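Hi R.,

As promised on Friday, here is the backbone we talked about, encoded as structure tokens. Could you run it through your design pipeline when you get a chance and send me back a sequence?
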């Protein structure tokens, strides 16, 4: 499978690392695209940075020349991980201001698999889970995006 993993600047870089660790580049053609702020968040959250397996291709969020920015060459699937509400909103409304969002737009246009992975609740010091009540605009983004065939983050467990 030809897979594009888009790592955003939202908190939750560990999820992207776990996904990369679970994929075999010998069985899949894997491409990684980092958002503008992903490197700073990765540096803060992952000691030693994001570990890419051998054979994984990387792409810049600034380049609209990457192969997936065109409907003539989309990957079979794209994962936006972690997918914040801001990223989901931009995808749901067709904003294509950088290569990551353009690739997501192409995936939707071509009716390819696009998944957004939300992050689990953070922990307060002392280990108490913090549950943030859903905000109406966030629920609207999920529903509106879903109706338009857009990405919807996986439910929190």
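Update: got your reply. Pasting your designed sequence below so it's all in one thread:
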């Amino acid at each position: 499978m030809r897979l594009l993993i888009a790592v955003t600047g939202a908190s939750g870089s560990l999820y992207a690392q776990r996904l990369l660790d679970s994929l075999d580049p010998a069985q899949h053609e894997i491409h990684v695209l980092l958002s503008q702020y992903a490197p700073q968040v990765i540096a803060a959250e992952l000691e030693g940075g994001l570990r890419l397996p051998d054979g994984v291709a990387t792409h810049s969020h600034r380049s609209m020349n990457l192969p997936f920015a065109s409907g003539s060459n989309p990957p079979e699937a794209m994962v936006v991980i972690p997918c914040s509400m801001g990223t989901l909103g931009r995808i749901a409304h067709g904003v294509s201001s950088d290569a990551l969002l353009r690739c997501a737009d192409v995936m939707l246009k071509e009716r390819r698999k696009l998944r957004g992975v939300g992050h689990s609740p953070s922990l307060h010091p002392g280990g108490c889970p913090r549950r943030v009540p859903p905000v109406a605009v966030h629920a609207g983004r999920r529903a509106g995006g879903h109706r338009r065939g857009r990405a919807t983050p996986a439910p929190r467990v």
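One thing I noticed while checking it: The CA atoms of residues 121 and 127 lie 11 Å apart.

Thanks again,
M.
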